[in-house]
């Protein structure tokens, strides 16, 4: 080995020849290498300004000589003659030079001066390069020659007077470099407190040797290497409340502010200052080419962010520390419903299969170009609008119209609702005999009023009532209970059974003796309620809790419930006989496993296209107005979601997003909400029935209601978490192939896991009820009024009252 050997890390060159020669030959290479790597320092971490040497100046000449003497490792790049040739051609665009003529013209341009003394030598200390360039005026002339006449000389001169501030240097780096390449500013102020990391290199045009650099330094160096004459001012601490004024006005007020930062607080802060100073703002979001323009220079009264956060207190953004606290601001700013399909799907996978939201170099570079283009036209008084635009390549550059490739969605084959005449025919066909003791109309209405308070799958309220000839007929309304997850109507009958239990409890509480007949009846007629001769009527205290019983999805306050309370819940169904039973799953380990099972079952449901469509188009109610208009379905407010979870539910509403997740074999984010709730339970009650016949499903519904009312009476919150059950038995009635064979198999495994947790006791699990101690619910599910579900027939006049 001869001469000097250097090891280069991110920031420095380490000379170690002397130490190398002192070592025994056998120890030299590896030991010395490791020592050099371990002791490497970074003395020039913040260096970003090149040094200029003009050799016609004796002082500069002496300085350069000193530099070369002390830094023999400097690499010299001298392509001045080729630059002169380009300059000559640029100054004489109409002349067609031969190569010898061009070389002669370039030398003549020197006017006898030695080439080394012409122009300027530029030293880049961070890369140890010394580059010979034309001086500023000629350099700029040649470097911008290919701009002409997309940018005229006069326009280029205007741009060279402008000051631009850029906040955030991930996406912002592409903006800065494009602005620098077009030379569309005189000063660029850049702000970011972060350093370059390996994961940034998917979209930031930098080398691996730049990791650890401040992003500001990294951008400033790259611009200096493109054009050392451009002025770049660094704010290495980012923009804060303390320095925002200085960022915007020191050295002259900004002509444009480009916001590419992640901080919601800073986004609001910079716009408020820009509005005060009448500085226009641009923001690219690197998804679907979304670009925001806010012309505060032309519209000083314009609300910030297009008025999207006017309903919020801007001061709250500064106080927001967690993602949950920031989301009320993030949602309207991001335009959550207009995100690309892949972005929606990816956001659902954050902290499951990805760490944070994705950004592609193609989108970032597109945004840099769009932002630079709009800025140039604003600066040249060619663009005056404010608003939000999309330059979506997938929409603009497609081999077919966007909608043409989407699978058509056929109409649901949902049964029609029964007419009054059909109800009468069904009722008369069941039994022509007059009721031995007719019910009066007021009592019938009272019983129906209690019945409709019962729970039902998706709050679909699958009941229809007819009061005729002193009898109250309960029908299964297939038009309401139809569901992709309940092809066998077993969960419709669970709700109908709960409805009957409520009716019997109300009858006892008001002293009206009734008998409920279900035997011998066939769907859709579920039960006939008649008067009874019974006189020994004993009220059941569970009737007092029908109005307060509800689904409570709030997280548990404590993970324990008294054994006596669980025993009371179990004992509440003994009056229904041995066809139903209840087991409890408790303990942190068991609940964690059950949470996994329930979460996986919900994932199958979410990712199945038919079930997903059913959930979003028929079951969910996403606004209070929609919920109030239908008085059914699941009001999203009853889910007690965190803001991030509400976003997930909203994003998951896009069928194309679900298609992507299914294709990726992803969607594990869907397991989290259910898993978390189950894990935070005190216990989960497993209701089992003798078999899956409809009559036992009806009994199961009565048992469920008694369990739920008992829990309510004890101050225990309850929530159905039965996805492993209804998905697990789905295959028994799925004649339309709603679930695939693979989905059925996966669901069966989860169902068998539940059996494994309680043991095979000869009955079949039918419902899972999460039990917890929790706060009061925020919103309760609504019910359709009695006159929507009950038809009263006056047999004397054959008139109908709905």
CATH architecture annotation of the largest domain: 3-Layer(aba) Sandwich
CATH names the topology of the largest domain as Rossmann fold
The proportion of residues in beta strands is 5-15%
What is the share of helical residues? 40-55%
Question: What is the CATH class of the largest domain?
Answer: Alpha Beta
Describe this structure in words.
There is one protein chain. The protein has 802 residues and is of the alpha/beta class. It folds into 5 domains: 1-43, no CATH class; 46-143, no CATH class; 149-396, NAD(P)-binding Rossmann-like Domain (Rossmann fold, 3-Layer(aba) Sandwich); 420-544, NADH Oxidase, CATH 3.40.109.10; 551-772, NADH Oxidase. Helix content is 42%, strand content 14%. It is built from 31 helices and 25 strands. The strands form 6 sheets. The chain has a 7-stranded mixed β-sheet, sandwiched between helices. A 6-stranded mixed β-sheet has the order 16-17-15-14-24-25, sandwiched between helices. Helix 4 packs across helix 6 (136-143). The longest helix has 21 residues, at 490-510. It is elongated, with a radius of gyration of 38 Å. Mean pLDDT is 89; it is low at 1-23 and 402-407.
């Amino acid at each position: 080995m001869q001469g000097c050997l250097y090891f280069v890390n991110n920031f420095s060159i380490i000379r170690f020849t002397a130490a190398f020669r002192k070592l025994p030959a056998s120890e030299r290479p590896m030991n010395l290498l490791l020592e050099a790597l371990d002791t490497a320092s970074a003395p020039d971490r913040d260096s970003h300004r090149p040094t200029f040497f003009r050799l016609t100046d004796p002082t500069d000449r002496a300085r350069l000589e000193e530099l070369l003497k002390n830094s023999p490792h400097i690499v010299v790049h001298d392509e001045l003659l080729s630059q002169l040739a380009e300059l000559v051609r640029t100054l004489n665009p109409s002349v067609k030079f031969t190569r010898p003529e061009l070389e002669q013209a370039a030398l003549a341009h020197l006017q006898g001066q030695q080439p080394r003394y012409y122009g300027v030598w530029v030293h880049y200390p961070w890369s140890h390069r010394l580059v010979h360039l034309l001086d500023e005026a000629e350099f700029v002339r040649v470097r911008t020659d290919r701009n002409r006449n997309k940018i005229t000389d006069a326009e280029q001169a205007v741009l060279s007077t402008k000051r631009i501030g850029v906040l955030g240097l991930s996406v912002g780096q592409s903006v800065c470099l494009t602005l620098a390449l077009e030379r569309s500013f005189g000063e660029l102020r850049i702000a970011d407190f972060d350093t370059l990391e390996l994961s940034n290199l998917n979209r930031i045009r930098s080398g691996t040797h730049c990791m650890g650099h401040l992003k500001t330094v990294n951008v400033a160096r790259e611009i200096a290497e493109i054009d050392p004459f451009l002025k770049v001012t660094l704010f290495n601490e980012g923009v804060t409340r303390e320095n925002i004024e200085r960022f915007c006005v020191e050295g002259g007020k900004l002509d444009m502010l480009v916001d590419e930062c992640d901080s919601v607080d800073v986004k609001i802060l910079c716009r408020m200052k820009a509005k005060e100073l009448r500085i226009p703002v641009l923001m690219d979001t690197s998804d679907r080419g979304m670009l925001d323009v806010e012309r505060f220079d032309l519209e000083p009264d314009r609300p910030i962010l297009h008025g999207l956060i006017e309903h919020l207190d801007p001061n709250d953004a500064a106080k927001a520390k967690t993602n949950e606290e920031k989301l009320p601001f993030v949602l309207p700013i991001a335009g959550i419903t207009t995100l690309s399909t892949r972005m929606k799907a990816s956001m659902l996978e954050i902290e499951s299969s990805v760490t944070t939201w994705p950004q592609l170099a193609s989108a970032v570079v597109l945004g840099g170009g769009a932002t630079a283009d709009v800025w140039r036209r604003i600066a040249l008084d060619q663009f005056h609008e404010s608003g939000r635009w999309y330059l979506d390549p997938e929409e603009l550059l497609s081999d077919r119209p966007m909608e043409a490739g989407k699978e058509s969605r056929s109409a649901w084959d949902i049964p029609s609702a029964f007419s009054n005449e059909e109800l009468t025919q069904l009722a008369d066909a069941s039994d022509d005999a007059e009721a031995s003791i007719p019910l009066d109309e007021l009592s019938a209405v009272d019983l129906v009023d209690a019945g409709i308070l019962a729970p039902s799958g998706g709050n679909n309220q699958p009941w229809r009532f007819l009061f005729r000839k002193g009898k109250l007929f309960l029908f299964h309304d297939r038009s309401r209970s139809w569901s992709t997850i309940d092809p066998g109507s077993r969960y419709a009958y669970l709700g109908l059974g709960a409805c009957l239990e409520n009716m019997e409890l109300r009858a006892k509480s008001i002293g009206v003796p009734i008998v409920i007949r279900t035997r011998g009846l066939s769907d859709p007629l579920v039960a006939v309620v008649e008067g009874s001769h019974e006189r020994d009527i004993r009220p059941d205290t569970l009737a007092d809790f029908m109005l307060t019983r509800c689904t409570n999805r709030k997280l548990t306050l404590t993970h324990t419930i008294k054994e006596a309370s669980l025993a009371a819940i179990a004992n509440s169904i003994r009056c229904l006989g041995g066809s139903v039973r209840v087991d409890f799953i408790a303990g942190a380990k068991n609940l964690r496993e059950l949470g996994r099972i329930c979460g996986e079952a919900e994932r199958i449901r979410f990712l199945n296209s038919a079930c997903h469509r059913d959930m979003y188009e028929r079951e969910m109610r996403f606004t209070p107005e929609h919920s109030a208009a239908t008085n059914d379905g699941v009001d999203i407010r009853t889910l007690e979601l965190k803001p991030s979870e509400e976003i997930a539910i909203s994003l998951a509403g896009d069928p194309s997003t679900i298609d992507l997740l299914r294709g990726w074999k992803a969607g594990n984010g869907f397991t989290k909400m259910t898993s978390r709730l189950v894990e935070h339970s005190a216990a989960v009650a497993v209701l089992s029935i003798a078999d899956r016949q409809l009559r036992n499903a009806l009994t199961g519904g009565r048992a469920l209601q008694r369990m739920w009312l008992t829990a309510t009476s004890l101050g225990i919150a309850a929530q159905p978490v039965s996805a492993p059950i209804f998905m697990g038995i789905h295959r028994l009635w799925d004649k339309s192939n709603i679930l695939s064979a693979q989905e059925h198999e996966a669901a069966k495994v989860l169902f068998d896991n539940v059996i494994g947790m309680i043991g095979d006791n000869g009955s079949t699990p039918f419902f899972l009820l999460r039990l917890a101690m929790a706060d009061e619910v925020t919103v309760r599910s609504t019910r359709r009024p009695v006159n929507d579900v009950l038809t009263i027939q006056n047999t004397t006049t054959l008139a109908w009252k709905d």
